[in-house]
Design brief:
GO terms for molecular function: DNA binding; excinuclease ABC activity. It is found in: Cytoplasm. InterPro entries: GIY-YIG_endonuc (IPR000305), GIY-YIG_endonuc_sf (IPR035901), GIY-YIG_UvrC_Cho (IPR047296), RuvA_2-like (IPR010994), UVR_dom (IPR001943), UVR_dom_sf (IPR036876), UvrABC_protein_C (IPR050066), UvrC (IPR004791). 46% of the residues lie in helices and 18% in strands. It has five domains: 83 residues, GIY-YIG endonuclease (3-Layer(aba) Sandwich), CATH 3.40.1440.10; 142 residues, no CATH class; 108 residues, Nucleotidyltransferase, domain 5 (2-Layer Sandwich); 137 residues, 2-Layer Sandwich (Nucleotidyltransferase, domain 5); 47 residues, no CATH class. The longest helix has 35 residues.
Length: 597
C-alpha cells in the first residue's frame, strides 16, 4: 500500500519530549497528549490493537497530526493542560470544575487595604489563594480584622493629600477598627508592620504574630496598662483558637503539596492538600471525566499540573501514593510510613468522601446514571462481554444433612428484585450432597426459563468454590447454555472468584463496589435459603412432636399454633389456657404429655 500523508507525518515525528495534537477531517482538534518521546507515543496508537472501543474510534478519526517540541517533561505537562482547558478536545479528560475561586488581595497602595475578590488584576497587588470557599476567606478576614486595625476606605492616601488635610476620620476610627491613617494618626511604617504580619498569617505562619502579641502584652502589663494588656490577651486567644482549629500534621512538614486519586470506570477524583508550617491550609478535590480509559497515573499527572497552576502553588516537594512523572523541578515522594504516609492517607480519605457524596447526589438526581456506572464497573472488573443487568445467585442449605433446600436470588441493575426470588426443595438427591444439589437446582431453574421463554441472566453467581461451579456448569452444558451465560463461583474464606476452566482465582479490591454487590447477592441468597430451611425444619419438627400425642389431630395443631404461635408456648401453657381453645379432653392430653413428672 502506498504511504498516506498521515503515515509520512508519523514517520517524520521527532524522538523528543513534547505535545502532540490529533485533528479530524474537518481540521477540528480532537485529542491532545504529552510524551517523553513524541514519535514512540504517537506510533503506539497506530501499531497496537486497542481493547477499548473509544480509542479505536479516535484512531479512525485522526486525519492529521501536529506536534510541539519542548525542553522538559514539566513544560509538556503544562502545555497539554493549557490546550485541554482552552480547546476541550472531544476525546480528552474533562475537567469538571471550572468555577471562579475567591482570593484575598493585599492592594498595592501606600496604606494597603485587605479584601476578598474573584478578579486577579496585574497591578502590583498581592493575591493570596485561591481559596476553595468564601467561608474560609470570611473566617480569615474576620480573624485579621480582630487582630489588626486596617483602613476600609478607598481614598488615595498620598503623603501630600494627608498633609493638606483633604480627609477626615470616619466612623470606623471612632469604633476602634482603624487608627486614622487618613489624618496622619498612624505612620506608614507602623501600618506596614501590621501588613507584614497579615502576610505571614495568610501563608499559614502564626508564630511571628503570636510572639509579637505576647511581647506587647508583657510590656503593657509591666507598665501597669492592664486594659491594653487585656485587649492584647483577647487577640492572642483569637489567634490561638483559630490555629487550634487548623489540622496540625507535623511542624517539620512545610511547603508541601499532597495529592491522591480515587477512580472508577468513568470518573476520577483527585484530592489536593497544601501544607504550610505543619498545618493544612488548603484542601480541594477535582473531578475528572474519563474519555479513553486513562490510567490513574495519567490522570494524576494532569490533575497535579492543573491544580498547582490554579492555586498558584510553588511547593518544591509533592507527596503522592505512587510514582508520577512531573519533570526535574519538583521532588516527588511516595511515603511508606509515619506522618508523611498518614497525610497521603488523609488525602485519599478526602477523595473517597467527595466521591461518596457525589454518588449519593447522583442516586437522588439521576438514578439511571448511578446504575449505568455500576454496571460498566462490574463489566470491567469481572471481565464480562456485556453489562450484568440481570444477575442470579444460588446457595444450598442443608444444616446437619436435613431438609436440603436451595435458594436463587435475582438482582436487576444492581438492586434486589425480590419478586423474582425462588426457593427449591431438593428432589433427586439423597443426603447432604452440595454438588449434586447445585447441579439439580441450576438445571431446573434454566430449563424452566427456557420452556417459558423468559429472559436469561447475563451473570450467574454460585456460592461456593470450584466444586459447586463445576456442578453448575454440567447443567448449563446439558441445556446448551455454556458460553451464553457468564458464570462464576465465590469462595467464602478469601472472597476468591472462580471462572470456568481457570485454576487461578480472581481477587477484587476489598473496597470495590463490584465485590460489595457480589457479597450482597451471596448474603441475600444465604439469608433467603436459611429462612426457607428453618421453616421446613420447624414444620417437620412441629408435625413430629405434636402428632406423637394420642388423640391430637391436624386441626387441633392448627388451632393451637394460631393462638400460641410456637410449640414452646404450647408446652409451657397452663391447663386453663389450653381448655378454651381445644376443649378439656384434648387439653388434658397435651398438658399431661408436657408435664409427665
Amino acid at each position: 500500500m502506498p504511504e498516506t500523508a498521515l503515515d509520512i507525518q508519523i514517520r517524520t515525528l521527532p524522538h523528543q519530549p513534547g505535545v502532540y495534537q490529533y485533528f479530524d477531517v474537518d481540521d477540528r482538534l480532537i485529542y491532545v497528549g504529552k510524551a517523553k518521546d513524541i514519535k514512540k507515543r504517537v506510533s503506539s496508537y497506530f501499531t497496537k490493537h486497542h481493547d477499548y472501543g473509544k480509542t479505536r474510534v479516535l484512531v479512525k478519526n485522526i486525519a492529521s497530526i501536529k506536534h510541539i517540541v519542548v525542553d522538559t517533561e514539566n513544560d509538556a505537562l503544562l502545555l497539554e493542560n493549557n490546550f485541554i482547558k482552552k480547546y476541550q478536545p472531544k476525546y480528552n479528560v474533562m475537567l469538571k470544575d471550572d468555577k471562579s475561586y475567591p482570593w484575598i488581595c493585599v492592594k498595592n497602595e501606600r496604606f494597603p487595604r485587605v479584601f476578598p475578590t474573584r478578579r486577579v488584576i496585574k497591578d502590583g497587588s498581592e493575591y493570596f489563594g485561591p481559596y476553595t470557599s468564601m467561608k474560609t476567606v470570611k473566617t480569615l478576614l474576620g480573624l485579621i480584622k480582630g487582630l489588626y486595625q486596617l483602613r476600609t476606605c478607598n481614598y488615595d492616601l498620598s503623603e501630600a493629600k494627608i498633609e493638606a488635610g483633604k480627609y477626615r476620620v470616619c466612623l470606623e476610627y471612632h469604633l476602634g477598627n482603624c487608627k486614622g491613617a487618613c489624618e496622619g494618626k498612624e505612620t506608614e511604617e507602623e501600618y506596614h508592620s501590621n501588613i507584614e504580619a497579615i502576610r505571614e498569617i495568610l501563608k499559614g505562619n502564626f508564630k511571628d504574630s503570636l510572639q509579637q502579641f505576647r511581647k506587647q502584652m508583657k510590656t503593657f502589663a509591666a507598665n501597669m496598662q492592664f486594659e491594653d494588656a487585656q485587649k492584647i490577651k483577647e487577640k492572642l486567644e483569637i489567634l490561638e483558637n483559630y490555629q487550634s482549629k487548623s489540622t496540625i500534621v507535623n511542624p517539620k512538614i512545610s511547603n508541601v503539596d499532597v495529592f491522591s486519586i480515587v477512580s472508577d470506570e468513568t470518573y476520577a477524583y483527585v484530592n489536593f492538600l497544601q501544607l504550610s508550617y505543619g498545618s493544612i491550609i488548603r484542601s480541594h478535590t477535582l473531578e475528572l471525566k474519563k474519555k479513553l480509559q486513562e490510567s490513574d497515573k495519567q490522570l494524576l499527572e494532569l490533575a497535579i499540573t492543573e491544580i498547582r497552576q490554579r492555586f498558584n502553588s510553588n511547593s518544591k516537594e509533592i507527596y503522592v501514593p505512587f510514582k508520577v512523572d512531573l519533570g526535574e523541578e519538583v521532588k516527588v515522594s511516595v511515603p511508606k510510613l509515619g506522618d508523611k504516609k498518614s497525610i497521603v492517607d488523609l488525602s485519599e480519605r478526602n477523595a473517597k468522601y467527595y466521591r461518596m457524596d457525589k454518588l449519593k447526589q447522583i442516586k437522588i438526581v439521576d438514578p439511571d446514571r448511578h446504575a449505568n456506572r455500576i454496571m460498566a464497573q462490574m463489566k470491567a472488573d469481572l471481565r464480562l462481554s456485556e453489562e450484568p443487568r440481570h444477575i442470579e445467585c444460588f446457595d444450598n442449605s442443608n444444616i446437619q444433612g436435613t431438609n436440603p433446600v436451595a435458594a436463587c436470588v435475582v438482582f436487576k441493575n444492581g438492586k434486589p428484585s425480590k419478586k423474582d426470588y425462588r426457593h427449591f426443595n431438593i428432589k433427586t438427591v439423597e443426603g447432604p450432597d452440595d454438588f449434586a444439589s447445585m447441579e439439580e437446582v441450576v438445571y431446573r431453574r434454566y430449563k424452566r426459563l427456557l420452556e417459558e421463554d423468559q429472559p436469561l441472566p447475563q451473570l450467574v453467581i454460585i456460592d461456593g468454590g470450584k466444586g459447586q461451579l463445576s456442578s453448575a456448569l454440567k447443567s448449563l452444558d446439558l441445556l446448551g447454555l455454556r458460553g451464553k451465560i457468564a458464570i462464576i463461583g465465590i469462595a467464602k474464606r478469601l472472597e476468591e472468584l472462580f471462572y470456568p476452566d481457570d485454576p487461578i482465582p480472581l481477587y477484587l479490591d476489598k473496597k470495590s463496589e463490584t465485590l460489595k454487590i457480589i457479597q450482597q447477592l451471596r448474603n441475600e441468597a444465604h439469608r433467603f435459603g436459611i429462612e426457607h430451611h428453618r421453616n421446613k425444619r420447624s414444620k417437620s419438627a412441629l408435625k413430629t412432636e405434636l402428632e406423637n400425642i394420642n388423640g391430637v389431630g391436624e386441626q387441633t395443631i392448627v388451632d393451637l399454633m394460631k393462638h400460641f404461635k410456637t410449640v414452646k408456648r404450647i408446652a409451657n401453657a397452663k391447663l386453663d389456657e389450653l381448655e378454651p381453645i381445644i376443649g378439656a379432653s384434648r387439653a388434658n392430653k397435651i398438658y399431661n404429655y408436657y408435664h409427665k413428672e
